Amino acid sequence: MGKVIDECVKHEPILAASRDEIESLQLEKLKWAVRYAYGNVPMYKEKYDGAGVHPDDLKHLDDLEKFPFTTKEDLRKSYPFDMFAVPMKDIVRIHASSGTTGKPTVVGYTKQDIDTWANLVARSIRASGGRPEHKLHVAYGYGLFTGGIGAHYGAEKLGCAVIPMSGGQTEKQVQMILDFEPEIIMVTPSYMLALADAFDARGLDARKTSLQIAIHGAEPWTEEMRKEIEQRFNVDAVDIYGLSELMGPGVANECVETKDGAHIWEDAFLPEIVDPKTFAPLEDGKSGEFVLTALFKQAMPIIRYRTKDLTRLLPGTAFTHRRFERISARTDDMMIIRGVNVFPSQIEEIILQEAALTPHYQITLAKKGRMDTVSVAVEGRASHSHEAHKAAALNVAKHIKARIGISVAMDIKGPNGIPRSEGKAVRVIDNRNA
Fold first, then answer.
1. Looking at 43-174, which runs of residues are DSSP E strands?
2. C-alpha 430 chain-centroid distance
3. Is 430 helix (H, G, I), strand (E, B) or coil?
4. Which of 42, 41, 38 has the alpha carbon at shortest distance from 67?
5. Is 220 helix (H, G, I), strand (E, B) or coil?
6. What is the rounded distance in angstroms from the CA atom of residue 101 to the CA atom of residue 99?
7. Which 3 state secondary structure label does DSSP give 388?
């Protein structure tokens, strides 16, 4: 084992527990969680009674398959507080999603929930190589979004000196990194690349900053993007995973010494993979939709939550807790173009193979008559000629046609021609119903 793995296991022996030990702990906690949800949240009692199942039916982990899923729509119907299992006097924090596609999903926390969350994020930062003596720059947004405050509490729990920068103010972000010299940054991968561009614009070498570790989450990103970030900043870039509905960041994290997929913290969450069409359970190693159950939540229990993320479960490596393959797509990100299922990450992977193009891109969908049309706008690198940009764009279109099976129109933009996001990047604009 490496130094980071040894340090993590020394602090938390559960990370080296056997499968039998992990599953025994999960079953004990799962029985509590299902019974607690049934007894304290009317939505769960109604669903379980309607499906003809009862907490007493849960005798083995596999028995969880008998219980209905929880969906984002369930949370929206319960807006704002009908999913809470405790009185408001016991709620110490409320977060919510942006609600851009409907009512926001609201999440509540007791003090114990917050403590558990902080511990799991601290574990994630330690697995990333973070130490108490490090300074940690948080560039996730603060507020109702769970990213900024979740990262903040976890970093403080580990003992780091936290720089609560939040999102936006890119020029100030650059200056704070130069002046405060943090070793760690927590930020979306797309905004990390926007920071790299800001360093370049000032004639500064981002590889010479104090940053050593970049912890990225909140949006899908590819191995190609990891290479780009690591090359431009001279850092180790690792993946953190979470959902506000489950907790926030810290549900799972990569180990910096293996970088082979995020380990799910299985003492706090029970993972499943199901077929996204039939919802039948799939065995480890098969790709499908990620379903998660929180095993500890007091304020708002979540049982069998359909995340809409597509992945597969893999055996543990750095730790005995299972990993999942990097989230490259979501069922609700999928574009259906002339009958072909297409994910933005497939197009991103092809773009990032062209040295003359930057990772900044945007896909626009429209209608021409009855036909869907696809336009991919991408920025060319200032270090390459316009002829090189055109040749690279032709290659991208050719490979998209060959690998994915759709034709696209390429639109080459100059520097800053693609809008920068201060949070999650907007990759697709769908004008087909405009």
1. 93-96, 106-109, 135-138, 161-163
2. 23
3. strand
4. 38
5. coil
6. 6
7. helix
> Where does 41-71 have alpha helices with state H?
42-51
Residue corresponding to tokens 């490596």: 317
Is-contact 396 351, C-beta < 8 A? yes
pLDDT in tens, the chain (434 residues): 799 999 999 999 999 999 999 999 999 999 999 999 999 999 999 999 999 999 999 999 999 999 999 998 899 899 999 999 999 999 999 999 765 445 788 999 999 999 999 999 999 999 999 999 999 999 998 989 899 999 999 999 999 999 999 988 999 999 999 999 999 999 999 899 989 999 999 999 999 999 999 999 988 888 989 999 999 999 999 999 999 999 999 999 999 999 999 999 999 999 999 998 899 999 999 999 999 999 999 999 999 999 989 999 999 999 999 999 988 667 767 787 866 778 888 898 899 899 999 989 999 999 887 778 999 999 999 999 999 999 999 999 999 999 888 899 999 999 889 988 776 778 889 898 76
**Single-letter amino acid, residue 56:** D
Calpha distance 218→41 (Å, rounded): 28
Give the span between the Cα atoms of 214 and 280, in whole angstroms. 36
Report the SS3 class of residue 308: strand
Report which of 127, 349, 358 is spatially closest to residue 232, judged by C-alpha positions.
358
Amino acid at 288: G
